[in-house]
Amino acid sequence: MTKKSKKYTLTLDVEETYRMIGICSHHIDYRLVWGINNELNSNFIKAENLFQIFGKKGVVVSEHSYYTFFDDENEINYYLIKNKSSNHYLIPEKVEFDYLFFICDDHYDLQKNIINKLKNVSSVLTASELDTSEIKSTDNINF
To answer: Helix (H, G, I), strand (E, B), or coil: what is residue 40?
Structure first.
């Protein structure tokens, strides 16, 4: 007779360590990034791979082009991800935004400053802070 072993499941509540800004722009991504780099004195670079969203059973649901920048001075990662790709949205609750700008740190004052600077970019129609706690699909976002 074999003895059954007990199974334990470990559940971790991962606290979000990023802020999200929605950007409306009718320009193509590289044109927008050029304006952002000039306004923020940053150096966003297009990632070689695509940002993937996985569904059930590990199936890729959508892939999105994105740009990254690491601020050495403040040790903060930034990401600019295209919201729509092949009729799928990274954040389906926010289809009005063309791009999503992520600040992977908790510098609230820094974020407000960035929103004001993003609004100065000629390619940006509007930029606004998004509350990630109200958006269910942010559970799929992992940096």
So the answer is: helix
Give me 36's structure tokens.
């952002």
Tokens 């063309």 sit on residue: 98
Choose among 21, 48, 51: nearest CA to 36: 21
Helices (H) and strands (E) in the chain, counts: 2, 10
Q: Name the 3-class secondary structure at 70.
A: strand
In whole angstroms, what is the distance from residue 53 CA to residue 55 CA? Answer: 7
The model carries a pTM of 0.83
Give the rounded distance of the alpha carbon of 42 from its chain centre.
17
How is residue 101 written in tokens?
Answer: 């700008």
Contact at 8 Å (CB) between 97 and 23? yes
CA distance 125 to 74: 28
Q: State pLDDT tens for residues 56-104.
A: 888 888 899 999 999 988 888 999 999 998 888 999 999 999 999 999 8
What are the tokens at 92? 């389906």
